[in-house]
Amino acid sequence: MVSTWRSLFVGFSLLFATQAWAGTAKDFTLRNIDGQEVKLSQYAGKVVVLQFWATWCGPCKVEMPHLHKMYKELGARGLVVLSISSDDARNSAQVKPYIKKSGYTFPVLLDKESTVTGTYNPSKTLPFLVVIDANQNIVAEHSGYNPGDEVALRAEIEALLPH
Predict the structure, then answer these.
(1) I need a labelling partner for 114 at 20 to 30 A (CA). Which of 3, 57, 146, 163 fits?
(2) Within the chain, where are the H helices?
(3) Using one digit for the tens of pLDDT, what is the confidence trace for 52-98?
(4) Where are the domains of the chain?
């Protein structure tokens, strides 16, 4: 019974998210932690999760291992996680050591001036996720993190991926 309710909840969440956040994702270019340029448009045809976070954000750090696990398990099916640090220029030097120490392998981008953050997350709530389908349409946005959110997020992402 719980599984049925969870399926219904996820289904209604997807329906609502798709209607509420319909629109094409705006392309952007940011540098990753190794200094290379990364464009959102280079991931056309893939399901992309934009994760906005900062090194000082506790809930962000709790959410990241779940996203990394999804990235590793679903990457072969077309999932890309672009982790976008909202740390300003003063704090951005902490990003690369934190990512390396944590062993995360998804692309980590630096948004020191909050240009992309301002476009996708104007309220600058952290953590903040944007789910983009393979056609580069925004299909969902998620603000904050609570334990268990990753279950519904994974179901949402799997529904967008080819089987």
Answers:
(1) 146
(2) 2-20, 58-74, 95-102, 115-120, 149-160
(3) 999 999 999 999 999 999 999 999 999 999 999 999 988 889 999 99
(4) 2-160
